Amino acid sequence: MQRSMLDLWVGLFVIAGLAALVVLAFKVGNMSSTGAGETYSLQANFDNIGGLKPRAPVKSAGVVVGRVTRIEFNNDRFTAKVTLTINKAVQFPKDSTAAILTSGLLGEQYVGIDGGGDGEMFKAGDNIRLTQSAVVLEKLISQFMFDKAAQGQPNTQK
Predict the structure, then answer these.
(1) CA 151 to CA 2: how far, in whole Å?
(2) I want to staple 99 with a disulfide (CB 3.0 to 4.6 A). Which of 26, 93, 119, 132 is the partner?
(3) pTM reported for the whole predicted model
(4) 77: how many CB neighbours lie within 10 A of its CB?
(5) Are 13 and 21 in contact (CB under 8 A)?
(6) Quick check: 78 and 42 in contact, CB under 8 A?
(7) Please, how many CA atoms are within 13 Å of residue 37, restricted to the half-sphere of its CB?
């Protein structure tokens, strides 16, 4: 009797641990949905998307309002064309801006949308014209190093 009760508790503990691992895997894999409501899509062109991936969150004021659904290369403009799916309950003015941002110093990248002041709202399939590309850490470091090297050179003109 004692042994079967112990086995039952160990089994329940193992099942709870496996369920927690599955939930954690979905959270880490960014597979959790933002809601089952209706959505509409917007597109934005970026010069550089950095490490942005499909299923990355779209945030406004820190709140997840959608997801990145597709990333492809735009042959006409030589840019990355990013398709965003936004919750239908959230509407953005036509002069809103989209930027690729990073959570923390080396965290995941996401698309941040700042609302504008225009009276007309985006419709499904519209293109966000005002975009800001991802900040690439390697470019910042190399620019800093080249600036420091240029400052350290002696001035030969007198």
Answers:
(1) 78
(2) 132
(3) 0.68
(4) 10
(5) no
(6) no
(7) 12
Mean pLDDT, the chain, whole residue set: 86
Mean pLDDT of 95-124: 89
Q: 56: closest CA among 97, 2, 110, 114?
A: 110
Q: Which of 9-13, 78-82, 116-120, 150-154 has the lowest mean pLDDT?
A: 150-154
Per-domain boundaries in the chain: 1-32, 39-137
Q: How far apart are CA 1 and CA 20, in angstroms?
A: 29
> What is the pLDDT at residue 14?
94
CA distance 151 to 86: 47
Which class does domain 39-137 fall in? mainly beta
Enter the DSSP assignment of 123.
-
